[in-house]
């Protein structure tokens, strides 16, 4: 028997032992966490608190999409600068307007979550 076949058979035996022994191979899953504003005194309040967390997550995704959109537009303007279609002041204007848009978006999401 060659060393290669011995190594191969030992590897398959180890994999078989690990697969058949769930105590060694299994990990404990974490429990469900309460919403950020607490569980509440009733099931309705708990569902409202989970809804608050959901709207916060949606707002986070919207702000992330805004940042990607501003960065994509700025990259396009930068590309146009090297082709001679736009000037550096256009990139500066894009940066200023983009920062203002992101700031307004953060402000609006913060105010909207206060309403909930």
TrEMBL record:
Species of the source:
Pseudomonas putida
Signal sequence annotation = 1-27
Give one Pfam hit by family name. Answer: DUF2976
Q: Does the keyword Signal apply?
A: yes
Name this polypeptide is given: Integrating conjugative element membrane protein
Q: Does the keyword DNA damage apply?
A: no
* Segments passing through the bilayer: 54-78, 90-110
Q: Which InterPro entries match?
A: Integr_conj_element_PFL4702
Keyword annotations of the record: Membrane, Signal, Transmembrane, Transmembrane helix
């Amino acid at each position: 028997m060659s060393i290669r076949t011995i190594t191969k058979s030992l590897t398959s035996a180890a994999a078989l032992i690990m697969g058949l022994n769930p105590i060694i191979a299994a990990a404990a899953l974490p429990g469900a966490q309460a919403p950020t504003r607490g569980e509440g005194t009733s099931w309705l309040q708990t569902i409202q608190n989970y809804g608050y967390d959901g709207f916060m997550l949606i707002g986070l995704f919207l702000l992330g999409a805004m940042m990607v959109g501003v960065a994509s537009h700025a990259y396009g303007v930068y590309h146009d600068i090297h082709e001679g279609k736009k000037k550096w002041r256009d990139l500066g204007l894009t940066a200023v307007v983009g920062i203002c848009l992101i700031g307004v978006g953060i402000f609006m999401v913060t105010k909207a979550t206060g309403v909930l």
